[in-house]
Design a protein that fits this description.
alpha/beta; TIM Barrel; eight-stranded parallel beta sheet; 42% helix; binds glyceraldehyde-3-phosphate; Aldolase_TIM; TrioseP_Isoase_bac/euk; TIM_sf; isomerase; Triosephosphate isomerase
Length: 247
Amino acid sequence: MAPRKFFVGGNWKCNGTGDDVKKIVTFLNEAEVPSEDAVEVVVSPPFVFLQQAKGLLRPDFAVAAQNCWVRKGGAFTGEISAEMLVNLQVPWVILGHSERRALLNESNDFVADKVAYALAQGLKVIACIGETLEQREAGTTMEVVSAQTKAIAEKTSDWTNVVLAYEPVWAIGTGKVHDGLRKWLHANVGPAVAESTRIIYGGSVNGANCKELAAQPDLDGFLVGGASLKPEFVDIIKSATVKSSSA
Ligand SMILES: O=C[C@H](O)COP(=O)(O)O
């Protein structure tokens, strides 16, 4: 089986202006980074800047939307459908981000429905999972992330186009949950999916800590928030070489 390619996602969240897009894309386009064989880079601007960013961005980097509607579009004011993203040739979408789960009450089932629908439309999905601080303090981390992953697994059989992003701020540097998640996939979905699915990490990743994090065995990349808006994002992309040099 082919080794899992390092994945670096930049989630711009609800930040920026058209001028910021130009500035970010400029430093990304000018950067010397490892080849597409070593790292897959996907940046996720807010919806309104997707086309602008896509039009300006170097061809070896892709774009992701930060969300999409759970099913076919229609009378759902304010939503963006998976079909619209496909129509704009946006290849990726982030679903189930912890901020949407916490602030907009997106449930495990709702996120799982979104993942299944987006995949069925041909999108690739960065599916986010992770526990709250309270759940972590209650010792229920694996229970929570297993339930989130189980909900997805019940509605998704083909994991080829899924990247699983685990993002709890408290867990920087532990790597334990990634190992647990891969074991969960192995036992509950199958060894091939466990071996091939990229499990990435999000939570205060920056230019200073990325190399140490990238060295962890079950960690296949990052979903970066704040630092993806800054030139240090290039250093995070370059941390892919930690993986290729240890392969
Ligand atoms: O989507 C990214 C994660 O929420 C991490 O964000 P952060 O790098 O700003 O901590």
